Amino acid sequence: MTVMIDGRQTAAKIRSELAKKAEVLKNQGITPCLAVILVGDDPASQVYVRNKKRAAEKIGIETKDLHLSAQTAQSELLELIDSLNDDPSVHAILVQMPLPKHLDENEVINAISPKKDADGLHPKNLGHLFMNEPQALPCTPRGIMVLLAEYDIGVAGKNVVIIGRSNLVGRPLAAMMINVDATVTVAHSKTKNLPEIAKNADILVVATGRAEMVDQSYVKKGATVIDVGINRLPDNHLVGDVDQASVTGVAAYLTPVPGGVGPMTIAMLMQQTLELAEKSK
Ligand SMILES: NC(=O)C1=CN([C@@H]2O[C@H](COP(=O)(O)OP(=O)(O)OC[C@H]3O[C@@H](n4cnc5c(N)ncnc54)[C@H](OP(=O)(O)O)[C@@H]3O)[C@@H](O)[C@H]2O)C=CC1
Ligand SMILES: Nc1nc(=O)c2c([nH]1)NC[C@@H]1CN(c3ccc(C(=O)N[C@@H](CCC(=O)O)C(=O)O)cc3)C=[N+]21
């Protein structure tokens, strides 16, 4: 039997706690505010923008949506970030990844004040994470850790295999898993014998951006499978990086897409915005 992990319900519970926290901040004269910069029209990013805005409104977080054209120059983007860094009404800044190819993502992330780093991707914050003294944390990996805790899925001493090594998901998740005593393997496009390595996992996390690439040949009986992927098919429906039908019955726990990691990412983004607003006092 496979238990479907309900990210939507878990996220809803977190959001209702956050709404109370936002109320407290407001009574202290602080209206938490998240600025979101989207350059161009990446489809996964657009799903994200829409759902984020809705969540923020319900919690009582203000959002500033800054949608720039795909042709925006690096200097223009850096100037926008500088002005948000200096704006005391803005507590958190998120730049949607990936950026169009002509832009330098690392330079952009570096420009965000670590104190307003909604995504926890600034090298200073990643450094704190790697030293196991976390400050702002990347939202998707954090959401995965919260989901595992919510379902009492232990991590200490477990074999965790993460497929994907992006700065946004795979790398920071590896650090978080190490910090709670997992034995971590990070796989990627150059990994050999991937199904065999994945089959060693007690907890398998898939973040490749390849629609339904992981089937039951990658999964040990009784493993937990976390599907991070958000892929929009030509017929417009969303699928993950895991072939859900194939893995069902083999995995003990599985996150659905939609309704798994995605809503948790948004809940964690809201939580971090409130935490940064609180620290700005
Ligand atoms: N649910 C959510 O909240 C979120 C979902 N996403 C989704 O998660 C997915 C991954 O996102 P992100 O990490 O940003 O993606 P990236 O494209 O930045 O990274 C993908 C990673 O997967 C690896 N990879 C690609 N193809 C294969 C393959 N065939 N076998 C093994 N490894 C492979 C790449 O390897 P290499 O490094 O060698 O190129 C790379 O490390 C996307 O679908 C994205 O939309 C992202 C963020 C949040
Ligand atoms: N700097 C940055 N940080 C990110 O965290 C980031 C990013 N850039 N760029 C794009 C990816 C993608 N991403 C999503 C998060 C939630 C959903 C989400 O809400 N998903 C719903 C979709 C439901 C639906 O609308 O059908 C679900 O999975 O249930 C989608 C996509 C964050 N990302």
Automatic annotation (TrEMBL):
<protein>
    <recommendedName>
        <fullName>Bifunctional protein FolD</fullName>
        <ecNumber>1.5.1.5</ecNumber>
        <ecNumber>3.5.4.9</ecNumber>
    </recommendedName>
</protein>
<dbReference type="Pfam" id="PF00763">
    <property type="entry name" value="THF_DHG_CYH"/>
</dbReference>
<dbReference type="GO" id="GO:0005829">
    <property type="term" value="C:cytosol"/>
</dbReference>
<dbReference type="GO" id="GO:0006164">
    <property type="term" value="P:purine nucleotide biosynthetic process"/>
</dbReference>
<keyword id="KW-0560">Oxidoreductase</keyword>
<dbReference type="GO" id="GO:0009086">
    <property type="term" value="P:methionine biosynthetic process"/>
</dbReference>
<comment type="pathway">
    <text>One-carbon metabolism; tetrahydrofolate interconversion.</text>
</comment>
<keyword id="KW-0521">NADP</keyword>
<comment type="function">
    <text>Catalyzes the oxidation of 5,10-methylenetetrahydrofolate to 5,10-methenyltetrahydrofolate and then the hydrolysis of 5,10-methenyltetrahydrofolate to 10-formyltetrahydrofolate.</text>
</comment>
<dbReference type="InterPro" id="IPR020631">
    <property type="entry name" value="THF_DH/CycHdrlase_NAD-bd_dom"/>
</dbReference>
<feature type="domain" description="Tetrahydrofolate dehydrogenase/cyclohydrolase catalytic">
    <location>
        <begin position="5"/>
        <end position="119"/>
    </location>
</feature>
<feature type="domain" description="Tetrahydrofolate dehydrogenase/cyclohydrolase NAD(P)-binding">
    <location>
        <begin position="138"/>
        <end position="280"/>
    </location>
</feature>
<keyword id="KW-0028">Amino-acid biosynthesis</keyword>
<dbReference type="InterPro" id="IPR020630">
    <property type="entry name" value="THF_DH/CycHdrlase_cat_dom"/>
</dbReference>
<comment type="similarity">
    <text>Belongs to the tetrahydrofolate dehydrogenase/cyclohydrolase family.</text>
</comment>
<dbReference type="GO" id="GO:0004488">
    <property type="term" value="F:methylenetetrahydrofolate dehydrogenase (NADP+) activity"/>
</dbReference>
<keyword id="KW-0368">Histidine biosynthesis</keyword>
<keyword id="KW-0378">Hydrolase</keyword>
<dbReference type="GO" id="GO:0035999">
    <property type="term" value="P:tetrahydrofolate interconversion"/>
</dbReference>
<feature type="binding site">
    <location>
        <begin position="164"/>
        <end position="166"/>
    </location>
    <ligand>
        <name>NADP(+)</name>
    </ligand>
</feature>
<comment type="subunit">
    <text>Homodimer.</text>
</comment>
<keyword id="KW-0554">One-carbon metabolism</keyword>
<dbReference type="InterPro" id="IPR046346">
    <property type="entry name" value="Aminoacid_DH-like_N_sf"/>
</dbReference>
<keyword id="KW-0658">Purine biosynthesis</keyword>
<dbReference type="InterPro" id="IPR020867">
    <property type="entry name" value="THF_DH/CycHdrlase_CS"/>
</dbReference>
<keyword id="KW-0486">Methionine biosynthesis</keyword>
<feature type="binding site">
    <location>
        <position position="230"/>
    </location>
    <ligand>
        <name>NADP(+)</name>
    </ligand>
</feature>
<keyword id="KW-0511">Multifunctional enzyme</keyword>
<dbReference type="InterPro" id="IPR000672">
    <property type="entry name" value="THF_DH/CycHdrlase"/>
</dbReference>
<dbReference type="InterPro" id="IPR036291">
    <property type="entry name" value="NAD(P)-bd_dom_sf"/>
</dbReference>
<dbReference type="Pfam" id="PF02882">
    <property type="entry name" value="THF_DHG_CYH_C"/>
</dbReference>
<dbReference type="GO" id="GO:0000105">
    <property type="term" value="P:L-histidine biosynthetic process"/>
</dbReference>
<dbReference type="GO" id="GO:0004477">
    <property type="term" value="F:methenyltetrahydrofolate cyclohydrolase activity"/>
</dbReference>
